[in-house]
Each structure stands twice: as structure tokens, then as C-alpha cells.
Amino acid sequence: MQAWYRGAPWLWLLWPLSLLFGLVSGLRRCLFRHGLKAAYRAPVPVMVVGNLTVGGNGKTPMVIWLVEWLRKQGYNPGVISRGYGGNSDHYPLVLSNTTRAEQAGDEPVLIFKRTGCPVVVGPKRAEAAATLAGLGADIIISDDGLQHYALARDIELVVVDGKRRFGNGRLLPMGPLREGKWRLASVDAVINNGGPGDAGEYAMTLAPGELQPVSATGEPPAPGARVHAMAGIGHPPRFFTTLNEQGFILDKQLALADHKAVSPAQLAGLADAPLLMTEKDAVKWPGGHDNGWYLPVNARLPTEFEHMLSSRLKELNHGD
């Protein structure tokens, strides 16, 4: 909701609802903290990658980076996710090569295809974590779920959109926050995606890879070519800016809602040039354009973040 980031005055009409939201979420958090509501403790360490705001902040590239980094450290990681945008007949759902984005959600399918690690989807993250541990994962990464206190966690990482930050700084629905900014003081690390960061934040950058075919043959378009672009992510302008920085000339830009697949009607009129999309769009591609390409991105984190993470994991192992 762009009004959150423009500071629209009419949002003050929603202040009573934000107050109620804060009271309810605070009470729930208190119940878990004092053991009045039980949290599931998985048999292996749990690492949560979440955010304070609704919408995409770059968690998926961060999760993929963690999977690859943990493997280099000798771990066998797995990922759990709520699976937003998916609808399965049964949960927990263990992803396979035949799992579609309509079943599991686009982000879990993307993570599974990129990493090949076990991925389990379910609305109850405790059940998903138990299933994943049973598959042999020795560390669990929760894609989102910072506010899902029914699952105990050992490490909390928060990803912040470096450009949009926290909008007007208000709780839902008056603002984009799921929890107050005070929550940042209690997490293990704040990762700043693509913008000037505050003191103590770790800078993450997203490095574009090579264009990959979705519905195309032949050579991909080169920088300087006229193309169309589409993005169904939390903040589509970020993707369009990346393409501009790569040197592409964007003719038409199609911004979709997060997790939303493009429809044939929306593709009408885009056939006269190559269509570039995000990897997230590619995993739920319905067809309708014969020259489609996706641009993968890879997270880059500083060495200081790796050192911090190594220290935290050693502390957990020592505690065992």
C-alpha cells in the first residue's frame, strides 16, 4: 500500500485499528513469552529469516544464500515456509520436482529449484519443522515467520528494504509494520537490502545473474535492447530499476501484486519485444509469450556477517 510510504494523512482514520492490532499482538507475544501458550521446540536449530513490514524485502535471496553458506559449513539445511499463494490438499507438503507454485506458493518452489534442499510448506510451522527434521535436516531455515511465536527459534534475522525502510512507522493497518521497530533490538542481525543502513546493520546487495529462458529459444536480449518487463514481487520498481541499470530499454512495465501470476489478458500487446521477468514470476509462468526470460539474482553479504553467524552457530553447538 503506497500510502504507507507517502505518509497519507487519511491513514490516521485507521489509528484505532492499529492500536487494537498492537494490543492483540502484544498480548499474544506475552502469552508465549511466559509459557502460557506453548511453543514447539524443534530437535535441531531453527533460524528465522523475517521482516517487520508486510510485502517483499528480499527474504528469498537471503534464504538461498543461507542454504548455500550453511552447506559450506558442513550442515544439511532445510527450509520451511507458510507457502503464500499456494493451495494444497494436505499439509505439511514436502516439495518435489513436480510440485507447482499453485500448490506450494512461488517462493518455496523457487527455493527448492535453486537449492535442491528439502522444503516443507504448511500453515502450521511447527508441523512443517517436525516434518523437515524427520527428513534429515540438521538445521531449519524458516522463510518468514518472525511473528510466528508458536515455533521456538535460535537465531533471528530481519531483512529491511533499504530504500523503503518502515514507511510511516505505524502498525497495521495504519502502517506496514507487523511489530514495532523496537523489535529490531532483540534479533541477532538486521540485514539491509539495497540502501543506506543504520549503525549495526549488515549490507546485502543483489547481484544479477545471466538471463535464463522461460519460453524462449535462441540468444537472450543484450543490454541496449528494447524490452518489456513484468514483476509480481513485493516492490516491482526494484526489479525495473535493476533492468535499467543493466542497460535495457524498458518499453512497457507490468507491475503485479506480490505472489500474483500474470494473466493472458495482461500479456496482450507485449509480443513485439522480449519479456523480462523475475525468477519468482518464472516459477508460476502460465505461458502466453514466446520470448520470455527471467533474471536470477544472488545475495551478497559482508564477511562480518559470516563471522557473526559462525559465532552464533558455535554458541548453539557448545550449548548442546
Automatic annotation (TrEMBL):
Pathway: Glycolipid biosynthesis; lipid IV(A) biosynthesis; lipid IV(A) from (3R)-3-hydroxytetradecanoyl-[acyl-carrier-protein] and UDP-N-acetyl-alpha-D-glucosamine: step 6/6
Binding site for ATP: 53-60
GO cellular component, one term: plasma membrane
Keyword Iron-sulfur belongs to the record: no
Catalytic activity: a lipid A disaccharide + ATP = a lipid IVA + ADP + H(+)
Pfam families associated with the record: LpxK
InterPro entries listed in its UniProt record: LpxK, P-loop_NTPase
GO biological process: lipid A biosynthetic process; lipopolysaccharide core region biosynthetic process
UniProt keyword annotations, A-Z: ATP-binding, Kinase, Lipid A biosynthesis, Lipid biosynthesis, Lipid metabolism, Nucleotide-binding, Transferase
GO molecular function: ATP binding; lipid-A 4'-kinase activity
EC number: 2.7.1.130
Function: Transfers the gamma-phosphate of ATP to the 4'-position of a tetraacyldisaccharide 1-phosphate intermediate (termed DS-1-P) to form tetraacyldisaccharide 1,4'-bis-phosphate (lipid IVA).
Similarity section: Belongs to the LpxK family.
The protein's name: Tetraacyldisaccharide 4'-kinase
Gene: lpxK
